[in-house]
Design goal:
By secondary structure, this protein is α/β, with parallel strands linked by helices. Helices cover about 35% and strands about 20% of the residues. It has a six-stranded mixed beta sheet with strand order 6-7-8-3-9-10, sandwiched between helices. A four-stranded antiparallel beta sheet has the order 2-1-4-5, with helices on one face. Helix 5 runs parallel beside helix 6 and helix 9 packs across helix 10. The model has no long low-confidence stretch (mean pLDDT about 85).
Amino acid sequence: MIRVERVTKDFGSTVALRDVDLEVGAGEVVVLLGLSGSGKSTLLRHLNGLELATSGRVTVLGEELARLRPGELRGLRGRVAMIFQQFELVPSLTVLENVLTGALARLRGPRIGLFMYPKALRLAGLGHLDRVGLLEKAYERADQLSGGQQQRVAIARALMQDPEILLADEPVASLDPESSDQVMALIREIAAADGLTVVCSLHQVDLALGWGDRIVGLRHGEVVLDTPTEGLSKTQVMEIYGRVTVSTTELTAIEQELGVAEPAAARAVAIAIDALQHGDEAP
């Protein structure tokens, strides 16, 4: 479904991605983990052509993105839906109108007002809202909903595309823990039911371990971990955030200073300190 081959992306003097290789098979649920600035969002944006690689090749659904003409790229994007961190809804429109915008790629001309959409699409939109548990909110303004509800609307909008691939860029970063769990569980449930391939960037290690089939760790634009989640410990995942060698004496000192009972937790603290010392965001 997705093949990324030796992709490098430069923004002037900044290297956002460096020689990245990645393959994602049909039906896989892959989580991208890493600090802010590690290249997660940039990599996701390469998978639907919002960014083009400085060098290397990105192939999605059998199409090499750099070779597509604008109309062909638009058609491909209709098969690759994306969920954003900030929901990207139109606040003044109803929930159903926001969902229906997901069908614009296969319609001609602009659509102003709910009844400018064909009846079949309006019914499909209501069906998707029912799937995400928001059918009763269909005619409310989007800005009247909670954050968790707005992200559910964004999921329903993505489903209107009838996609084969679902990309999600920090979809729960703006939500509280309970809403985060609910939204991620919903994405997983829909992906399994519809046979979707999912690539999602996250910050939350626990959520990633419980939700994804596979973890791909990025650090400074390079892939530093690519492994199935089964049997993977949180301590191993924390290595994404910094490679530090901590002696037993240092671990004991951290435990005593902070009252940390577990060596793994002490090591996580040491990694965070290392990240801060190198100007990174602490996990």
